[in-house]
Amino acid sequence: MKYMILLGDGMADEPLVELEGRTPIEAARTPNLDRMASRGTVGQFCPIPDGLPPGSDVGNLSLFGYDPRRAFRGRAAIEAVSQGIHLADDEVAFRCNLVTLEDGKMRDFTAGHISTGEGAALIATLQEKLGADFPLVFHSGVSYRHLTIVRASASASLDQLVALQCEPPHNITGQEADPYLPRGKGESIVHELIRRSRDVLADHPVNRARIAKGDPPATSIWLWGQGKAPSMEPYERKFGLTGAVVSAVDLVKGIGLCAGLEVLNVPGATGWLDTDYAGKVAAALGALSTHDFVYVHIEAPDETAHQGRADLKIQAIEDFDREVVGPCLTWAENHGDCRVLAAPDHFTLISTKTHAGGPVPFVLCGPGVPANGQAAYTERAAQASGILVSDGYRLVESMLRDATPDWLARNHDNAGDPIR
Ligand SMILES: [Zn+2]
After folding, report:
1. How far is the CA of 352 from the centre of ligand 1 (A)?
2. DSSP conformation class of 366
3. 168 close to 52: Cβ distance less than 8 angstroms
4. Structural domain boundaries of the chain?
5. CATH of domain 2-73+232-413
6. I want to staple 264 with a disulfide (CB 3.0 to 4.6 A). Which of 283, 318, 336, 339 is the partner?
């Protein structure tokens, strides 16, 4: 049996007045997801366990079949793995965003989607100016997404650094930023580092050029999502499967590497509406000639929702359906012995421009998966199905482990009885 997971990041949403009471998934034309729905099982599952933040790290861990309550150690450590950075035992990786503060408020958590080249120049200067005064190393990444590896010191122990309460900058758009600086024992070194970054960035030539062009400058770093080196049981041992991951996003590639999966790099994968969908699908389907499992991650529904743009989110969902789900489903149908799961990793709400927890819709089809009578893949259809997988990671566990997922059959006969 072959297995595909098609992940539309942050696809799930609420009914919106501007869409006449429909959600973006309901408003989008999704004939391929609906074809999966009519042939398979539509239901709800909870990728974000109670008490954990509704981030892509936690959600994607569930969708790879790992219990986030055990596997989750902060997204930055996973991103570090994906960049080939080895974390020593006394080191903690922080996600380091380049952000735009204006009058002390978080104007843009992406510094205007600053280019990778500009970001790298700023990060190099930060390392040069601050590297001697703090026990840290900066690593530049893609666009506004970078890493700061902080070593435990007399100012902050390893446990203190890990335990700091850090706010994701995309959660505080438009708000006064400094009240959300990391909180907890050992916070002062991190505060000092962030404040010093503002002096270094203030008059940087990259920022002067951006201001001259009318682009938002990167005025500060923002540290969050920290963690120690992750430890996850490899897929081959956990599920007896080999597999591959296709994503534009370091976080998802990192989870794949931690899981012992092959990470396929597609040059035109951007994480935005202009991503190379055909290239990603070709890489994924090619991988299935040698692997059992492939995970295709599409970021655009999440990014468009962070912008609060229902029209763009609908476009992203329609692109996902047409360019990804369509060809993958056709491949699976021709192959015959292949299960396909499509799902988001969390809600990304147009109304708040941020993530939210709670049960999201999935659709699963293929051998041994009964049709449960839903004609469409939507939040409402999933809720109406009466199927709820409370421990979200068990959805993938069942899909990958069971010849026949008996919990599906059982729940199918017993609608309304949630799976625990
Ligand atoms: Zn996500």
Report:
1. 15
2. S
3. no
4. 2-73+232-413, 81-227
5. 3.40.720.10
6. 283
